[in-house]
Amino acid sequence: MKLSSIDYYLDWPVSIKLENLREFIIANLGKKGDLIRWSIVDIQNSIDSLGTKKLKIKVVLSN
Fold it and tell me: Which of 23, 24, 42, 48 could disulfide-link to 56, CB 3.0 to 4.6 Å?
């Protein structure tokens, strides 16, 4: 088993409530491989007018 650590950037749309954020993140990260661990390391406001936020997520995957 090979582990890889990556920084993943994900847009957090306004339509996703905080209570559903975990499910949203896992659904998006699951497309990258077998998820071992993840953590949000930074949240930034986007410069667009839609009010989205940009999440920086540290991810450990197994391949």
Answer: 42
The structure's pTM equals 0.83
Instruction: List the structure tokens of 34.
Output: 């077998």
Phi then psi for residue 58, to 5 deg, are -90, 125
Using 50, 70 and 90 to split pLDDT, how confident is the model at 63? confident
The span from the CA of 63 to the CA of 58, in Å, is 16
Question: Which letter, b or e, does each residue of 21-53 get, where b requires 16 or more Cβ atoms within 10 Å of its Cβ?
Answer: eeebbeeebeeeeeeeebeeeeeeeeeeeeebe
